[in-house]
Write a structure and sequence with these properties.
This protein is an all-alpha fold. The protein is 63% helix and 1% strand. It is built from 18 helices and 2 strands. The protein has helices spanning 14-23, 28-37, 51-70, 80-89, 94-121, 130-152, 157-169, 177-185, 192-224, 250-275, 308-316, 322-339, 343-362, 365-378, 383-386, 399-420, 425-443, 445-448; strands at 40-42, 247-249. Strands 1-2 form a two-stranded antiparallel ribbon. The model has no long low-confidence stretch (mean pLDDT 91).
């Protein structure tokens, strides 16, 4: 294919000539048009749609501050804690960079949780956006790994013992568990080899994959188009020029629109960084300001707040909870068996239920706690096939759906709170109830999501001010 040089007038500005030179060799203007100025987004976006762009901003903050932290951090068990103290006390503006990074980690999860909740209530995972949702769930899974590996790096008491607990969980996996735990630690105990492994994952491996997944997430989104609060595909209504009648160019309308959300976010972010970087021990625990001591276990070990809902499910899975848990799965399996007409599928479900019964007898509560904790995240990937609702948006679903979603949010928050608290008999029972509801929300979704009287979906988007 012959090279085609883009021509511009001789008296054109130097910027126009430079842009033409670049466009001849790289599709810069084409990409800008496809993904910004000529990408049509629904005109009825509300405040829930701020969080996608905010997630990109926080990712940039984390990468930039991380680069500056690595310049002075020592991934050495004997020097790691001292290097963090050196950054905080001696490096010019080091305290600010460190607090921006630690606050950014928590704010990342705040933004991502709200972004995912918006996808839930507006049905953004339904056809044709299944792949967008899967990429998003993979990003969430990687963020959890990134946060976990980064949590060890300060080499404080909670970092050390938190990593010890989590890595030991992998040993509950049959056959490969002990070897997997040993490989993650790099030693028989959490030590220098573990720190170097976690540092490599946190700084190089996961960020590279994460950036690639974010790019794939955005490309997939722009391929099929954005969802909106009404759950209507704006590409179904085009004008004479082939443009969506209910769409507006992302740039300049939403690129400017998102500045408002960014401004509010940065005010909150700065307030936390400058006035409450520890957030009462939720963002940075007091025990993590004490150097790691392998000989002294903290009285209460708990992960950072964004892991605690899943940690609560792990702690809730006790030996006495296995029977109610099996009964719960039996009820779900019975619903599936009753609603399927395929004899082979019924046989498969019965076999799975029998295998679960045998598994509950064969494996201990620790193993099933790991399964429940991991499954509570993995189940998110199957949302496009679990939701059988004929409409996308919560606006046009039966009223009782809103209560189901509301109780789900309350249960998730309660699990998060209980994961921080010391264990007690009452908290254990409450976390078990919330765990059952969390799992039931997803596993029973094929049944409750299609019940009730659905409202008619309008043919055009409706606009509601913020």
């Amino acid at each position: 294919m012959a090279f085609h040089e883009i021509k511009v007038p001789e008296n054109a500005p130097i910027t126009a000539k430079a842009l033409a030179w670049v466009d001849s060799r790289f599709p810069l203007t084409k990409l800008f048009k496809e993904h910004m100025s000529e990408y049509y987004a629904p005109k009825n976006f509300n405040f829930w749609y701020f969080f996608g762009s905010l997630a990109i901003v926080v990712l940039a903050i984390q990468i930039i501050t991380g680069i500056f932290l690595v310049m002075n951090y020592k991934p050495d068990a004997a020097k790691a804690f001292e290097s963090v103290e050196y950054i905080m006390r001696e490096v010019p503006w080091g305290w600010l960079i460190r607090y921006m990074h630690s606050t950014g980690a928590s704010m990342f999860f705040v933004v991502v949780y709200l972004h995912m909740f918006r996808g839930l209530i507006y049905g953004s995972y339904q056809k044709p956006r299944e792949l967008i949702w899967i990429f998003g769930c993979a990003i969430f899974l990687l963020l959890m790994g990134e946060a976990f590996f980064g949590y060890l790096l300060p080499w404080g008491q909670m970092s050390y013992w938190g990593a010890q607990v989590i890595v030991n969980l992998f040993s509950a996996i049959p056959l490969i568990g002990p070897d997997l735990s040993l490989w993650l630690r790099g030693d028989y105990v959490v030590g220098d080899a573990t720190l170097n492994r976690f540092f490599s994952f946190h700084v190089i491996a996961i960020p590279l994959v994460l950036i690639g997944l974010v790019a794939a997430h955005i490309i997939a989104l722009h391929e099929v188009g954005s969802n909106n609060p009404d759950g209507i595909d704006i590409k179904d209504n085009l004008d004479a020029n082939g443009k969506p009648v209910d769409g507006i160019p992302f740039h300049p309308y939403y690129s400017v629109h998102d500045i408002m959300g960014l401004g509010v976010f940065l005010i909150i972010f700065a307030a936390i960084v400058f006035f409450a970087p520890e957030m009462g021990g939720y963002f940075l625990e007091a025990n993590n300001f004490i150097p790691a001591d392998p000989l002294q276990t903290p009285p209460h070990i708990a992960p950072v707040w964004y892991f605690t809902p899943f940690y609560s499910m792990l702690r809730a899975t006790t030996s006495s909870f296995l029977v109610p848990l099996w009964v719960f799965f039996a009820v779900i399996a019975f619903l599936f068996i009753r609603n399927t007409k395929d004899i082979k599928m019924k046989g498969l479900l019965i076999a799975i239920l029998a295998a679960l019964a045998f598994g509950f007898y064969l494996f201990d509560a620790k193993f099933w706690g790991v399964v429940i904790m991991g499954g509570s995240v993995v189940i998110l990937f199957f949302m496009p096939w679990l939701d059988h609702s004929p409409v996308r948006s919560i606006r046009y679903r039966p009223s009782f759906h809103k209560y189901i979603y509301g109780i789900f949010v309350v249960s998730f928050v309660i699990l998060g709170y209980l994961g921080i608290q010391p264990p007690s008999p009452f908290y254990e029972k409450l976390s078990q109830v919330c765990t059952i509801y969390y799992l039931g929300f997803f596993l029973a979704m094929p049944f409750w999501s299609k019940l009730g009287q659905f409202k008619p979906v309008p043919s055009r988007v409706t606009f509601q001010a913020h």
